[in-house]
Specification:
The chain is an alpha/beta fold. It contains 18 helices and six strands. It has two domains: 224 residues, Tetratricopeptide repeat domain (Serine Threonine Protein Phosphatase 5, Tetratricopeptide repeat), CATH 1.25.40; 211 residues, 3-Layer(aba) Sandwich (Collagenase (Catalytic Domain)), CATH 3.40.390.10. Strands 1-5-6-4-2-3 form a six-stranded mixed β-sheet. Helix 4 links the parallel strand 2 and strand 3. Helix 12 runs antiparallel to helix 13 and helix 14 packs across helix 18. The radius of gyration is 22 Å and the shape is globular.
Length: 457
């Protein structure tokens, strides 16, 4: 299940940085009023970078992903589809979904060796049902998208909800699964749901907050399947495993499977064994990132995250995420404290596999402060450092935001040609990342407001 909170809240952070988003009459956002935006950009399918973790560590993570659910509930047996997997789409299918689904299935075939293909006739193994977000929220309020076993539609899920039929723990093997995705959202969110939910529909069901290089993490920093994720899916469908196996049986086979599939991971340091995140910390995450409630509540939640992380002795992505959540909660009221928290998060993520994407998110936050405070050369340096990482990670919303910041910083420094180039480059990505023209223009206004404040200050 992909949750609504976490890093989808870039706009909230920008709005908090901007002093009531006052935009001058000659700002980029104003000058684009009534002007058609350029065509939407999208990412071609790209193979992921190789896995950096050792095989012993991957084996531990694999077992936690496979034999627990996001609620913390244990699963008694290993399940998967046995045989070719077919995928169909139904409902109000967004125009961008066909290409993005084709790309992720092609990657699964090439990188994970999975026999997955579009359904031609008959009932599909996996049915992706596109429904209005409002209808989805009435059923599952906190989910951006979700996956359910033994049904093939949202309507069928609502009829069977609460029965043993939709209980993952009762499955012996997977025969049919429904994925429910909003039909009225940005193309990037649709794609992100296709990646994460299709991977969970056919693979492991859990998410682990300590993973720094995976979409199987509810912090939502990674938006497309990584090299780690593809290896996990390849292991999931290895011939040495089969539906019905116990955790002990799977654990006994993992060393030889990983030695064969990931020989470079043999002998690498595996780090300290990582326990599942305690529920109080997970609940504090929800409080810290909730769009409801005030800054005081979010700060309290982030401080609980940080206190638990320190008490647990964590040095992994969860400690960094706790600092990031604290910085995010402090943006509106104490920019100096927020900056210190973001820097603590960045220092940890810089030394973790997969941490570059998270570091780029921190750089975006710091660039927003730099713009608002008139430190335009610093804002430009931060965006220039983050943009290649974000482009490689295929996050169009963040890429567009960074390019808009780059445009404003260049304009403030008198580099008009570079400012125009970055602004135009940002708009096609913004249409993919944010969806509607109104949201694209609103993001331009937010960032123009930051730069206007920096010029005045």
């Amino acid at each position: 299940m992909r949750f609504l909170p976490a890093i989808a809240a870039i706009s909230l952070v920008l709005a908090a940085c901007a002093p009531t988003a006052q935009v001058s009459m000659n700002s980029p956002a104003q000058s684009l009023e009534g002007v058609p935006l350029p065509p939407m950009q999208s990412f071609a399918g790209r193979a992921a970078a190789p896995v950096q973790a050792g095989n012993a560590e991957i084996a531990r993570d694999f077992l936690q992903l496979e034999f627990h659910m996001e609620s913390g509930r244990a699963l008694p047996r290993f399940t998967r589809f046995e045989g070719p997997i077919t995928v169909a789409m139904t409902g109000d299918i967004p125009p961008s979904a066909h290409a993005d689904l084709g790309r992720v299935m092609q990657r699964m075939r090439q990188e994970a060796g999975i026999d997955i293909r579009p359904a031609v006739t008959g009932q599909a193994s996996v049915t992706i049902d596109f429904q209005p977000r409002a209808a989805m929220r009435r059923a599952v309020p906190t989910a951006a998208c979700f996956v359910v076993p033994n049904v093939s539609s949202f309507a069928e899920y609502r009829s069977a909800r609460g029965s043993g039929r939709t209980d993952w723990a009762l499955l012996e093997r997977r025969d049919r699964v429904a994925i429910v995705v909003p039909s009225d959202t940005a193309p990037q969110e649709v794609r992100d749901c296709l990646h994460e939910e299709l991977a969970q529909a056919i693979g492991p069901l859990n998410d682990l907050y300590h993973l720094s290089d995976s979409v199987f993490n509810d912090d939502n920093f990674h938006t497309v399947l990584t090299g780690f994720d593809m290896l996990v899916l390849r292991v999931h469908y290895d011939p040495a495993l089969s539906s019905g196996m116990t955790q002990a049986e799977v654990a006994a086979r993992l060393p030889s499977i990983l030695a064969r599939l990931n020989p470079s991971g043999e002998g690498r340091p595996s780090g300290t064994p990582t326990a599942l995140s305690p529920r109080p910390w997970v609940e504090a995450v929800s409080t810290a990132l909730s769009p409801r409630g005030g800054d005081r509540s979010r700060i309290a939640g982030a401080e609980r995250m940080l206190a638990i992380a320190h008490a647990q002795g964590w040095q992994d992505s969860r400690l960094a995420f706790s600092w990031f959540a604290l910085g995010r909660a402090q943006v509106g009221g104490d920019p100096a404290a927020a900056t210190r928290a973001f820097l603590e998060a960045r220092a940890i993520w810089q030394r973790l596999p997969g941490g570059a994407v998270r570091t780029a998110h921190v750089d975006m936050q710091l660039a927003a402060f730099a713009l608002a405070e008139g430190r335009f050369a610093e804002a430009l340096a931060l965006t220039d450092r983050a943009i290649p990482v974000v482009d490689s990670a295929q996050n169009a919303a963040l890429l567009a935001t960074l390019l808009m910041m780059r445009s404003e910083a260049n304009a403030a420094l008198g580099r008009d040609a570079q400012a125009r180039e970055a602004r135009l480059d940002s708009l096609g990505w913004a249409r993919y990342g944010f969806g509607t023209d109104a949201l694209v223009r609103a993001r331009l206004s937010d960032i123009a407001g930051l730069a206007a404040a920096g010029r005045r200050g």
